[in-house]
Amino acid sequence: MRPDRLFLLDMVEAADAIVEHIAGRDRAALVADRTARAAVLHELTVIGEAAARVSSETRRRYRDVPWAEIVAFRNVVIHEYFGLSWPIIWVTATEDVPDLRSRVRAILESDFPETSTTDE
């Protein structure tokens, strides 16, 4: 079984990729760029998949991370694709994802101090 450390790293890397995909864009520019939209949605899906696979023990220890909501958001992205709300996705990408990244990095630093993640 894949260790939590790797799922948490997946989440951080996907969050970093989202930041790259939206850099220099506002919401309208993101919505206008089909490739960027697809990339952001893919990375949100990765975050949700990884969050779903983090052990229940880790999820219980870190209740401040909204694990269930992250997984539910992934399900919306996958199953409700044609009904997505780009204003909500924009807020998720620009506000929620950076906050989540910080929380996940803190878990990595606390539980897996040997883990090297990308610089701040």
Structural description of this entry:
The protein has 120 residues and is mainly alpha-helical. It has one domain (4-111). It is built from six helices and no strands. It has helices spanning 4-22, 27-32, 34-53, 56-61, 67-79, 86-111. The chain starts with a helix and ends in a 9-residue tail after the last helix.
Task: Give the helix/strand layout.
Elements: H1 4-22, H2 27-32, H3 34-53, H4 56-61, H5 67-79, H6 86-111
Helix pairs in contact: 1-3, 1-6, 3-5
Entry keywords:
120 residues; mainly alpha; 6 helices; 75% helix
Q: Main sheet?
A: none
**Which structural class do you get from the secondary structure elements?**
mainly alpha
Report the count of strand segments: 0
Average residue-wise pLDDT: 94
Termini gap:
29 Å
Could you write a compact summary of the structure shown?
75% of the residues lie in helices and 0% in strands. By secondary structure, the protein is mainly alpha-helical. The chain has one domain (4-111).
